[in-house]
């Protein structure tokens, strides 16, 4: 079952640098506007996704200098040459997984930890892998401060997945790959879904939705996207 989301905006953000009551309320208002205008106002219709996006504080996952822009619909820098995806893309990829509350999810590319936090509000368990140690450790710290207990962070090469935790009901890759890693397909459960950006590193990629049913793999392109490259050791 989903861990209780014990997060208190005032307490958690105070741990991250301190904010006024006014700033807390402003962030909550901006988050609700984001859900209504950028997500529900477009093509995000999955109620669980909308509820999760309304609950998770994006400002907690970005550097202090970027917090004024936390609810703008664009990527933001998080250090080490990486970015946090725009809210719409996080919601779109989450919705595309067609998640159930009992699902076990593998995320490749923890980054800021925001996508994992959103997933944690919908599914039973999230296992997330980050290749850059500083990002992985920071994401783990923020998730802990927000009392999100059903996310496990691992530092390592996501190309090989997390074999000892497989199979996964869903796999989400938040970095652009030149091809779909066969190992990840193997770790996807029967009737599982994978969402992954695929294409050349210096060009526009296709966001691919892969499904596995009765041993057969089917892929569908959902949209053109731009993502930072899938980094490997």
UniProtKB/TrEMBL annotation:
UniProt gene name: pcm
Lineage, highest ranks first: Bacteria, Pseudomonadati, Bacteroidota, Flavobacteriia, Flavobacteriales
SUPFAM superfamilies to which the protein is assigned, alphabetical: S-adenosyl-L-methionine-dependent methyltransferases
PROSITE patterns in alphabetical order: PCMT
PANTHER family: PROTEIN-L-ISOASPARTATE O-METHYLTRANSFERASE, PROTEIN-L-ISOASPARTATE(D-ASPARTATE) O-METHYLTRANSFERASE
Protein name listed in UniProt: Protein-L-isoaspartate O-methyltransferase
Main subcellular localisation: cytoplasm
Residues the record marks as active site: 85
EC primary class: transferase
Catalysed conversion reaction: [protein]-L-isoaspartate + S-adenosyl-L-methionine = [protein]-L-isoaspartate alpha-methyl ester + S-adenosyl-L-homocysteine
Pfam families: PCMT (PF01135)
UniProt subcellular location: Cytoplasm
């Amino acid at each position: 079952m989903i861990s209780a989301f014990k997060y208190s905006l005032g307490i958690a953000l105070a741990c991250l640098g301190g904010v006024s009551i006014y700033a807390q309320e402003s962030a909550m208002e901006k988050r609700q506007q984001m859900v209504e205008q950028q997500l529900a106002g477009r093509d995000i219709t999955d109620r669980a996704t909308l509820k999760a996006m309304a609950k998770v504080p994006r400002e907690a996952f970005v550097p202090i200098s970027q917090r004024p822009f936390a609810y703008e619909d664009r990527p933001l820098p998080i250090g080490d040459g990486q970015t946090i995806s725009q809210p719409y893309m996080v919601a779109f990829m989450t919705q595309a997984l067609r998640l159930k509350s009992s699902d076990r999810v593998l995320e490749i590319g923890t980054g800021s930890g925001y996508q994992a936090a959103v997933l944690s509000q919908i599914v039973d368990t999230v296992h997330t892998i980050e290749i850059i140690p500083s990002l992985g450790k920071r994401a783990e710290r923020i998730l802990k401060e927000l009392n999100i207990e059903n996310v496990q962070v691992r530092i390592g090469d996501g190309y090989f997945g997390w074999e000892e935790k497989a199979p996964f009901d869903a796999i989400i890759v938040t970095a652009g790959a030149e091809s779909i890693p066969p190992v990840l397909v193997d770790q996807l459960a029967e009737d599982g879904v994978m969402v992954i950006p695929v294409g050349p590193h210096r060009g526009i990629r296709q966001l691919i939705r892969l499904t596995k049913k009765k041993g057969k793999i089917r892929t569908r392109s959902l949209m053109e996207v731009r993502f930072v490259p899938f980094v490997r050791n």
